[in-house]
Structure formats: structure tokens, C-alpha cells
Design a protein that fits this description.
The complex is a heterodimer of chains A (about 240) and B (about 725). Chain A is of the alpha/beta class. Chain A has a single domain, classed as Rossmann fold, CATH 3.40.50.880. In chain A, about 20% of the residues lie in helices and about 25% in strands. In chain A, the strands form two sheets. In chain A, strands 2-1-3-4-11-10-9-6-7 form a nine-stranded mixed beta sheet, sandwiched between helices. In chain A, strands 5-8 form a two-stranded antiparallel sheet. The longest helix of chain A has 11 residues. Chain A is globular, with a radius of gyration of 16 Å. Chain B is an alpha+beta fold and about 725 residues long. Among the domains of chain B are: about 220 residues, PurM-like C-terminal domain (Phosphoribosyl-aminoimidazole Synthetase, Chain A, domain 2, Alpha-Beta Complex); about 210 residues, Phosphoribosyl-aminoimidazole Synthetase, Chain A, domain 2 (Alpha-Beta Complex). A seven-stranded mixed beta sheet of chain B has the order 8-10-7-11-9-12-13. A seven-stranded mixed beta sheet of chain B has the order 23-25-22-26-24-27-28. A six-stranded mixed beta sheet of chain B has the order 1-2-3-6-4-5. In chain B, helix 7 packs parallel to helix 10 and helix 22 crosses helix 25. Classes of the chains: A alpha/beta (about 240), B alpha+beta (about 725). At the A-B interface, helix 1 and strand 6 of A face helix 8 and helix 10 of B.
């Protein structure tokens, strides 16, 4: 699986993500400069965390106009795998590749800490190495991670199995205190209807090596690597 | 016309002015006067401190760069070096907490990457007035948000530091920011304008009127009219700085430039004159070419502006176009504003006119140095009786109270606002004895800590300096790191007061003694004087930033207890000392001495035992005994235990119970280990002549203390945790 990590001005998890793809999983990986028009034949595009364009105006709002985003949109339209982490998720929302928007965290502070996520759909190409209802411990680091969509949109996401990760407590129970940023339906990560574009606020690249205190982020990369291999692909059914 | 009022506005004395006239052979014009006022300010020239700073040991086998550059550099082997420094941004942070703190972070980051290093860690030492005052809370809220905003966006993890509250900081908060970067030894850059005829390039943000006289402001006391100085505080743009970082590292990595200097305090003035001075050259620049944010700026304003996110660099004529291409790729300007000249003059033109023409050396090197009068302060009389009050009876309650005190309470409210994990090197999360960062692909790791105790320093400045070094090294020892380099931030009052000068001299002497004992070089730092408001000085506050090296990251231990049944062992000795302790302050409302005694040789031996025990895999946890004493130390080890394990201690009967639990005797570390490892640890301790006592056992979910079999303290770990965790969030909850 060849990974391409997009570098926007202000991206700051680009190296971390590249490091995990390359050094931790030994996969081919390349940086993709936002001003280019070439995806260099990658199998999976990752929009990394950071503060693209300083998050000025609104997180992700300027990055969506970067030249490379046209190619990313076409790539996604052809069924190519796109993973947006944190700021990358925010860019996917601005691009309209995923529904909804991000509000400021409910406590109006930046939050950096380990949280617990429940895998709500283990049948996606981003989560098939995990079990359904498995609890993952992965850190977040964001100011605008309070996911918002109108109630009927949320209902549709739920009905289609598009909610992939939800904030829960360490035992896997939904709890107000565990929904640290105040997201609608405690949503931490969603997938598009085509099953090839996933956005998540937590940082799996920060939880892929034992020395950093958690390896639960590996599930996401391992799922992608597996789904990139030839053979029957799993469907979208939750 | 330069008159007494104009000189006073520029913080220059009549004598200093006479010296300027003598050095340049005529009266300076207003722009030149501005340049001298900045470069001869306390902030830039260290005129009151440099005589004393010479006492600090700065040499060492692995020192690549000592004091005098943007930051110190230490060789860590394997072709790598660390670049690190601490800076204060106290005055701006009081006036405008968010931007003051944010630009403090921005400034220190530039100091590190201007040398070619990528910043990999930031730590902050913060001091505020007590939390019950809304004004103090607002300052703290703003400072933390400012650090968070800048560091997070830039993408450097803020991995540790300290926060302390005391009345004296209410109108003089301290914001000291430490940064460490990693560089390949063959890619280090210096601020040298070499090669006569080479172009001088201005890169980064445009110049505006912000921050004019920032350095001068930081070199005077605050009075009642301080609010008017708000426009002196600069506004930060972390996004611009991130672009500047990437562009600078790219041109450095490709060997396209010769010298580079950031524009921090004193902006264009400092960068042009210092770069020329370091190469023994002159420099000429044309201000009409300087990118400007505002119309109608005067030469004085352009030269004195402290607009952020700007750098000055020198490259060869051949490489200039390529350098400009790299900056353009990152959407940044790189404008040729002048060139390196021979002859040693700094010349500035504007609208075809020569507006500055003075010798570089006069500006940079010939500022007067002062040995100001100093006098031992009268020790303030202790409130109440001179004797130590008897220990209270309900010690469990006392421990809860101490744990909940803002100075000892959990600082998660602060550090969860900082991205402390970006770059994926943070191995020990904030809250441990020291921050630990891996070096990707290596067994070795870096540890770093900031420490200072202003209460000890107020009581006895020399002891405060010595203990700050000792405690920082002890924190490193607790993660198995050997200290390799020191930077310091010396926060004091007005040096024109003899008592302040005395405190300063004593503190420097204390730091020097301790650094010599630990054989660690001081590679740089910062002095912040004039921390006075309306005539009152802060407690002397030397803050030490010490970096250590861990040989094998695989052996790392943390402060939390790990296993039921493990022995709790105290390395070092407990003496009957409660002076200067947090216990005396919190429980008895006293800030009186004496400060705890410190034997540097004994301290060093305790560290050696702890490091060896960690390297041999003998211990499962290590935590230093410092503020709050032994009781707070074991309570923290219980709270930080992943399983919430408590402990039962059987304590010595010869020491008074208050000193035993809460005294702050130095040179002590609490470790926990399996029973089978005890004999090996004993041998280690005996060889180094370090006191070792088995003081208890890990287990249960309470912290229990007994003497002669009689229990006199029992607190559930859950209650201790709650008291410890809730203080800061409660103080900041909406009321």
C-alpha cells in the first residue's frame, strides 16, 4: 500500500504520519506538496493533522482551495482511499467529501489527551482489523473537534453505519464526560457512503508504537494495508 | 535635539550618553540614539549582570557553543547535537497575557531554528499571583492560551514545566520559555555576516510599528501608567513562523546560506549589528527595501520595530536567486536589503539619505558593564512566634490540604491545553519528574526539566540557586538521565537596588557552585531584571533548565507505583527541617527559613545510585522528594500509579512528625522495587555511601503512615487524587 501524505503550509503531523507508514509499517510513502497536481500513484491519500494555513478563517477552510485538492477529490470520486486525521478531517468537511462541520470544543479550550473510542463499524477498509465495539485508546489534540450535523443528517449517518468511531469511557460506555469536545452523538470519526473516505479527530499516528504508551492506532493503518491487498473486499454493512 | 527627557525616555543615563558621543565622535541623531538605547538596554547588553555571569562554568568536553550565541549547543554523539535555551517574556505577559506569552514562545523557537535545529520540545516555567484573585486568573488564562496557541500551531510539543503561585507575582507574572532543538552537527549555523559584498536578505513578515521599545520596556520598572505600554507588545503569527522554520531549514539543509540571525528583541537593529560584529565586518542596508506593513514609517520606527517572525540572512550572490525561490515556495518574501561591507560600520540609508553611520563595535561590544552596589537585605521578621509551631493532630486532613494547594495540585488543566505529543517523541507525558523524548531510531533519549524555588531564594538566595540546580539534576536522575547541559533564566527585581543586586550575586554564586559540583556547563540563558511594580520586587527567582541523556530508553521508569507488594525505599536522609517548606506556608502561613541544607557531594551520590538502579532494571518507579516532602512524594506516586496503588509506610521515630512527612530535606528519592532486588540496591547504595531505608510497601488503595506500629495517617488514594485534581479546574470553572 503506497501512502501519500499531503503537506499543506501549516501541516505539522505530516512527518509523524509519514514515519508511521514508512518506519513502523514499512510501506512505501511519499509527501504530496499541496501546490502540485500529482498524486504520484499512491493508493491512499492521508490529509494529516496540523494547522493548515494557520487555521485562519476556519479550520480547513483555506486548505480546501489548495491546487492538489482537485486531484484528491477526483481520486476519492474514483473510489481511492482518503484518510483525514484531525485537521485533515476538518479539510474533508470543508471539501464536502464528508458531511457536517466542526465547532469549538465545548469547554472552549484546546484539548490534548488520550481518549477512548469505540469501534462502531468494523467492516470498513479503515477499521477491519479491529472488532466491533472494541475500545481503542488514542490521543486527541484539537481546538475544533466538536462535530456538528443536523439531527436528520446524524440519523442518516447512524443508519448507514457511517459512524465508525465514537467517544466512550474506558469501559466502552457512552458517557457525557467521555465526550470531551461535545460532539453530536459523541462522533469521533465518520466515513462516506462509498466507504473510501474516512475522517477522524483522534491521531492514530500518535498511538502506533509501544514506547508512546498505546498501539491502538495501528488498527487503522493495518486495516488500510490489508484492504489494499488483492482479494475480496469487504462491503459497507455495519 | 537630544535633551535629558529624551535620554530618560530611552533609559539612557547622562554618563552612557557621554560615552556614546565619545565612541562615535559626534552627537547621535534620533535613529542612532534609538539603536544605542536598545542595544545598551539591560535586556540586550546584560550590563548589570555580565560581570557576575562570568562566574558560571561554561566549558565542557561536549560543549560546541557556550553563551553568546542565540542558544547553547551540546554534542550528544552520533553526529547529533542539541540546541537549547530559556528566555523570559515577563513584562509583555503582564501587559497583554495572550500575545505576551505567545510571542515569548515565538522568540525562543526562532533562537533555536536560526542555528539550524528543528525545535522538538518546549517547557515553560510560569509564576502568577494567587488564584483567588480574578485578575490573576485572567492573566494565567491568557498566558496558557497564548503558549497553547503558538506552540500547538507551530507544531512543537510543550512537554513540561512548572507553575507556581505567590502574591509577589500578581503584578509581575513570570513567563519563562525553554526550547530544545535537534541538529546534525554539520548543519549548525551561526549569526555571522561573512564575505564582504555578500547580499543581506530580509525574510518573513513585514515590519510594522508593533513592539517598538520592547527591549527597553523590559529594562525598567512598571509604574501605574503601565497600561499605556500595551502597544509595545508584539502580536504573534505562529503560522508565519512555521513557514519560516520550514523555509530556513530547507535553505540551510541545502547549504545555500552563510549566516542567519532572527529578529527578536531589538529587531533589525540587533540582527544587523550583531551579525556584522560576529564576523568583524560592517553592514549597509537600505530601509526603502524593507517590506513594511504600514505607510510612513520613520527610520527610527523601522530600525526599532519588534515585529515578529522575521529573520536576516547572508548568502552568496550566486545562491541568492535559489534562496528566494525556496522562500517563495513557502509563500514568504526574501528581499535583498543590503550587503556585507568591510570596515566595521553599520550604515543605514533611507530615501537616499544616510540615517545611521556608527561603528558596529560601539553598539555591540562597548556598552558599559556595571558592578552595581550590593547589600545583604535585612531578613524580614517572621510573623508570629520564632519557634516552629507544633505539628497538627489530624495529619490525614493536612495531607489533603497540602495536595490541594495550587502549588502542589495537578497541572493537567494547563498541560491539556498544550499539544504535548506532536512529533511523536514524547515518552513520559507531562506531570512526571522530567520530560522524556525519544530520538527516533536510537536507544538513547533526552530528558529535560525546569526548576526553581523562589521561597528558598527569598530566604537565602545562594541556597536557592544551589537547590534549583540540585533539584533539576535529581528530577533527571529519577528518569535515569545524566545531566549534560544547563541554561538558566534569572528573574530578579531592579538591579539598581543594592539588596536585589546582592540576591543576584548570591544566586549566581549558588548556581555556579552546584554546576561545578555536577560538572555541567552553562551554555546560555537569560537575565530578567526590573521585575518590580510600584517599587516592590519579586522574590528572586532563578529558574534552571537542565538537559540530560538517557542511555537506554527501554529501562525508563516513571514516578507511579507499579506493583502490589513492592518495597518503598528512601534513598538519602531525612533531617529535622521544615524551614521554607510548602507545609509551613500552607498550614502555618509562614514563609520563613532556614532553607534546607544541601551537601552537593551527597546529592550527586544519591543521583548516581538512582541512575544505576534504573539502568540495571532494579527499580519500578522513582520520584524525587521536593515541594511538600515525603508525604506528597508518596501520595503522588500512588496517584500516578496506573492501578491506583497506595502504600503503607513505617517511619522513623527520631524525627519530628511534621518534618518527617512534610519537611523538604534535600537529596532524597523514593523508589519502589521487588523484594528480590533489594540486596543489589543496598550494595549500590553502600558503595556510594548513600543512606537507604526501606520505609514501606506498595499495596492497597490508601496511603498509610505508621510509627512504632501505630497508624497516624490514612488517606484513600481516590480522595487524594480528587483533592489534587480538582483545584485548578475549580478555580477556573465559571462562577
Amino acid at each position: 500500500m503506497k501512502f501519500g501524505v499531503v503537506v499543506f503550509p501549516g501541516s505539522n503531523c505530516d512527518y509523524d504520519t509519514y514515519h508511521v507508514a514508512r518506519q513502523v509499517f514499512g510501506q512505501p510513502a511519499t509527501f504530496l506538496w499541496h501546490k502540485d497536481h500529482d498524486l504520484r500513484g499512491v493508493d491512499c491519500v492521508i490529509l494529516p493533522g496540523g494547522f493548515s494555513y494557520g487555521d485562519y478563517l476556519r479550520a480547513g477552510a483555506i486548505a480546501r482551495f489548495s491546487p492538489l485538492m482537485r486531484e484528491v477529490q477526483e481520486f476519492a470520486g474514483r473510489g481511492g482511499l482518503v484518510l483525514g486525521i484531525c485537521n485533515g478531517f476538518q479539510v474533508l468537511l470543508e471539501l464536502g467529501l464528508l458531511p457536517g462541520a466542526m465547532l469549538r470544543n465545548k469547554n472552549l479550550k484546546f484539548l490534548c489527551e488520550h481518549v477512548h473510542l469505540r469501534v462502531e463499524n468494523a467492516a470498513t477498509r479503515f477499521s477491519n482489523r479491529a472488532r466491533r465495539s472494541q475500545v481503542l485508546r488514542i490521543p486527541i489534540a484539537h481546538f475544533d473537534g466538536n462535530y456538528f450535523a443536523p439531527p436528520d443528517e446524524i440519523r442518516e449517518l447512524e443508519n448507514n453505519g457511517q459512524v465508525v468511531f465514537r467517544y466512550v469511557d474506558e469501559r466502552g460506555r457512552a458517557a457525557a464526560a467521555a465526550n470531551v469536545n461535545g460532539s453530536a452523538a459523541s462522533i469521533a470519526g465518520i466515513i462516506n457512503r462509498g466507504g473510501n473516505v474516512l475522517g477522524m479527530m483522534p491521531h492514530p499516528e500518535r498511538a502506533s508504537e509501544a514506547i508512546l504508551g498505546s498501539e491502538d492506532g495501528r488498527f487503522i493503518f493495518e486495516s488500510l494495508i490489508r484492504s489494499g491487498k488483492p482479494g475480496p473486499r469487504r462491503g459497507m454493512a455495519p | 535635539m537630544i535633551d535629558a527627557k529624551l535620554l530618560a525616555d530611552h533609559n539612557l543615563t547622562q554618563d552612557e550618553y557621554a560615552r556614546i558621543v565619545e565612541l562615535i565622535g559626534r552627537e547621535p541623531n534620533i535613529t542612532e540614539l534609538g539603536i544605542f538605547s536598545l542595544m545598551w538596554s539591560e535586556h540586550c547588553s546584560y550590563k548589570s549582570s555580565k560581570v557576575f555571569l562570568k562566574r558560571l562554568p561554561t566549558k565542557g568536553k561536549y560543549v560546541i557553543q557556550g553563551p553568546g550565541e542565540n542558544a547553547g549547543i551540546i554534542d550528544i554523539g552520533g553526529g547529533l547535537a542539541i540546541v537549547f535555551k530559556i528566555e523570559s517574556h515577563n513584562h509583555p505577559s503582564f501587559l497583554e497575557p495572550f500575545q505576551g506569552a505567545a510571542t515569548g514562545v515565538g522568540g525562543i523557537l526562532r533562537d533555536i531554528f536560526t542555528m539550524g535545529a528543528r525545535p522538538i520540545a518546549v517547557l515553560d516555567s510560569l509564576r502568577f499571583g494567587p488564584l483567588d484573585n480574578p485578575r490573576n486568573r485572567a492573566i494565567m488564562d491568557g498566558v496558557v492560551a497564548g503558549i497553547s496557541s503558538y506552540g500547538n500551531s507551530f507544531g512543537v510539543p510543550t512537554v513540561g514545566g512548572e507553575v507556581y503561585f505567590q502574591e509577589g507575582y500578581a503584578k509581575n507574572p513570570l513567563v519563562n520559555v525553554f526550547c530544545l532543538g535537534l541538529v546534525r552537527k554539520d548543519k549548525i549555523f551561526y549569526a555571522k555576516a561573512e564575505g564582504v559584498g555578500n547580499p543581506v536578505l530580509y525574510v518573513g513578515s513585514k515590519t510594522g510599528r508593533d513592539g517598538i521599545h520592547g527591549a527597553t520596556m523590559a529594562s525598567a520598572e512598571f509604574g501605574k501608567e503601565t497600561e499605556q505600554k500595551r502597544p509595545n507588545v508584539q502580536v504573534g503569527d505562529p503560522f508565519k513562523e512555521k513557514l519560516l522554520l520550514e523555509a530556513c531549514l530547507e535553505v540551510m539543509d541545502r547549504g545555500l546560506i552563510i549566516g542567519i540571525q532572527d529578529m527578536g528583541a531589538a529587531g533589525l537593529t540587533c540582527s544587523t549589528t550583531e551579525m556584522a560584529a560576529k564576523a568583524g565586518n560592517g553592514i549597509v542596508i537600505n530601509l526603502d527595501l524593507v517590506p513594511q506593513r504600514e505607510e510612513g514609517m520613520t527610520p527610527y520606527e523601522i530600525m526599532l520595530s519588534e515585529s515578529q517572525e522575521r529573520m536576516l540572512l547572508v548568502c552568496s550572490r550566486e545562491n541568492m536567486a535559489e534562496v528566494q525561490r525556496v522562500f517563495a515556495k513557502w509563500d514568504l518574501e526574501a528581499v535583498n536589503i543590503g550587503e556585507v561591507t568591510g570596515g566595521g560600520q553599520v550604515r543605514v540609508t533611507w530615501h537616499g539619505e544616510m540615517v545611521v553611520d556608527v561603528p558596529v563595535s560601539a553598539v555591540v561590544d562597548l556598552c558599559p558593564a556595571y558592578t552595581r552596589p550590593s547589600r545583604r537585605p535585612e531578613v524580614p521578621p517572621a510573623p508570629g512566634s520564632p519557634e516552629t509551631p507544633p505539628p497538627p493532630s489530624r495529619l490525614g486532613q493536612v495531607l489533603l490540604k497540602v495536595m490541594a494547594d495550587p502549588n502542589l495540585a495537578d497541572k493537567k488543566w494547563v498541560y491539556r491545553q498544550y499539544d504535548h505529543m506532536v512529533q511523536t517523541n514524547t515518552v513520559l507525558l507531562p506531570g512526571a519528574d522530567a520530560a522524556v523524548l525519544r530520538i527516533k531510531g536510537q536507544k538513547r533519549a533526552l530528558a529535560m526539566t525546569l526548576d526553581g524555588n523562589s521561597l528558598y531564594s527569598q530566604i537565602d538566595s545562594r541556597a536557592g540557586g544551589r537547590i534549583a540546580v540540585a533539584e533539576a539534576c535529581r528530577n533527571l536522575a529519577c528518569v535515569g538521565a545524566r545531566p549534560i547541559g544547563v541554561t538558566n533564566c534569572l528573574n530578579f527585581g531592579n538591579p539598581e537596588k543594592p539588596e536585589v543586586m546582592w540576591q543576584f550575586e548570591e544566586a549566581v554564586e549558588g548556581i555556579a557552585e552546584a554546576c561545578r559540583a555536577f560538572e555541567i556547563p552553562v551554555t546560555g540563558g537569560n537575565v530578567s531584571f526590573y521585575n518590580d511594580t510600584e517599587g516592590a520586587s519579586i522574590y528572586p527567582t532563578p529558574v534552571l533548565g537542565i538537559v540530560g541523556l538517557i542511555r537506554d530508553i527501554g529501562r525508563l521508569v516513571g514516578p507511579g507505583f507499579k506493583k502490589e507488594g513492592d518495597l518503598v525505599v528512601l534513598l538519602g536522609e531525612t533531617r529535622e527541617e521544615v524551614g521554607g517548606s510548602q507545609y509551613m506556608r500552607i498550614v502555618h502561613g509562614r514563609e520563613t527559613g532556614p532553607a534546607p541544607a544541601l551537601d552537593l557531594d551527597a546529592e550527586k551520590r544519591v543521583h548516581e545510585v538512582c541512575i544505576a538502579a534504573i539502568e540495571r532494571g532494579l527499580v519500578r518507579s522513582a520520584h524525587d522528594v521536593s515541594d511538600g516532602g515525603l508525604a506528597v512524594c508518596v501520595a503522588e506516586s500512588s496517584i500516578l500509579s496506573p492501578a491506583g496503588l497506595g502504600c503503607t509506610l513505617d517511619l522513623d521515630e527520631s524525627v519530628r512528625v511534621d518534618a518527617l512527612l512534610f519537611g523538604e530535606s534535600q537529596s532524597r528519592i523514593v523508589v519502589s522495587l521487588g523484594r528480590s532486588r533489594l540486596s543489589e540496591l543496598r550494595k549500590l547504595a553502600a558503595r556510594k555511601k548513600v543512606g537507604l531505608s526501606v520505609i514501606g510497601r506498595v499495596g492497597g488503595h490508601d496511603v498509610v503512615a505508621r510509627r512504632a506500629g501505630r497508624q497516624f495517617l490514612r488517606d484513600p488514594v481516590a480522595r487524594l487524587r480528587k483533592a489534587w485534581e480538582e483545584t485548578l479546574p475549580r478555580a477556573f470553572s465559571v462562577r
